[in-house]
Amino acid sequence: MGERTLLTKKKMTHSHLDITPRKILVIKPSSLGDVIHSLPFLNSIRKCFPQAEIHWVIAKEFQELPDSHPMIDKLWVINKGEWKVPSKAWDTLKEVMTLFRELKKERFDITVDLQGLLRSGLITMASGAKIRIGLKGFKEGREGSRFFYTHRVSGGKFVHAVERYMRVADFLGCDTSEIKFPLPDVSSVLPIAPPYAVIVPGARWQTKKWRSERFGELASMLPIKSLVIGTNADDAIADEIVKASKGNAVSLTGKTNLKELIGILKNAMFVVSTDSGPMHIASALSVPVFALFGTTSPLRTGPYGDIHTIITAGLPCAPCFKKRCDDLRCMDKITVEMLYNAIKEKIKV
Q1: Cβ(240)–Cβ(220) under 8 Å?
Q2: Most buried residue, 71, 229, 245, 249, by most Cβ within 10 Å?
Q3: DSSP 3-state helix, strand, coil percentages of the chain (rounded to 5)?
Q4: Which residues pair with 7 in a beta bridge?
């Protein structure tokens, strides 16, 4: 397994629960970054309960990451993306009812909801587990999901997502003295030989994005090639980056699956990224990340570990957590020079 380890100060604690579970259900369907953040929790409970079956509820678009994972005994794949589509209502109802019925048959001892939304809360209740655990605190237990739990663990407002999830492992009495990201081993064919940098310009929120021509200008200044990664939706952005790079960037957007993406990130000298899923994969692989943050909080969802560099404009309005904003000063005031100088200071290229 490819994995990254980071020691923490927490040691083995006594469980708050008097139970040795036979079956555990973990609910964390999305997003990609959040699933990556959950891997240390998975590692911790697997070591803590080696004889237990661990099941995982995952969204269809992210199932490639935990599929065939040796620490997971069974995946429950849901079409989460279609659950809010009115024309798919009947199919969704049938899927949900089947899911609830089949989960009930498993007779889980413990269900852990790391998502904290109404749908995950309903799945938690439907699992039928006697012990149903969720997080409480800033942005946790949303949409009434907390009412479906028997136990709530404090997450904390100024705590990274990885550490919030590990607090649940600590509550279960598991050893949280080290953080490991057990990622699948990959051996993908690289499009170019190292050394190279990786640029991740895409993001789910418009407010997380940086101007494509600036990524391109940065690539033109680097003495090594840059690979631009993302989905098909990032094709136009990638084309602008390649054009502005003066031939020093190559676009791979829409041309890799998730495991191939892991292989590309694993072999990168460093990664330049917005707040995105691939940023968290690179972090989990111990590849230095230069992360651009504006509207979101690097304290809560930044690349985990001390080898990474956060680039911000330092404005008092950030982070605001807005998905839309007419004034993107928090990103626009991050200059190419700021980013280039940060890379030059830390990386010998």
Answers
A1: no
A2: 229
A3: 40, 20, 45
A4: 178
Q: How much is the pTM?
A: 0.88
Give the count of beta carbons closer than 10 Å to the beta carbon of residue 83: 16
Burial string for 39-59 (b: 16+ CB within 10 Å, else e) reads bbbbbbbbebbeebbbbbbbb
Q: Spell out a b/e string for 199-216, using b for 16 or more CB atoms within 10 Å of the CB, else e.
A: bbbbbebebbbbbbebbb
Distance CA 251, CA 3 (A): 27
Nearest Cα residue to 171 out of 133, 141, 123: 133
- Edge to edge, what strands does the sheet with 110-113 contain? 74-78, 53-59, 23-27, 110-113, 131-136, 151-154
User: Three-class SS string for 159-182?
Assistant: CCHHHHHHHHHHHCCCCCCEEECC
Spatial contact of 312 and 293, defined as CB atoms under 8 Å apart:
yes
Predicted confidence (pLDDT) per residue in 244-268, tens digit = 999 999 999 999 988 899 999 999 9
CA-CA distances (angstroms) from residue 114 to 5, 134, 244?
Answer: 21, 6, 41
For residues 199 and 219, the answer to whether their CB atoms sit within 8 Å is yes
Q: Which residues pair with 292 in a beta bridge?
A: 311
Candidates 279, 271, 268, 267; CA nearest to 303 is 279
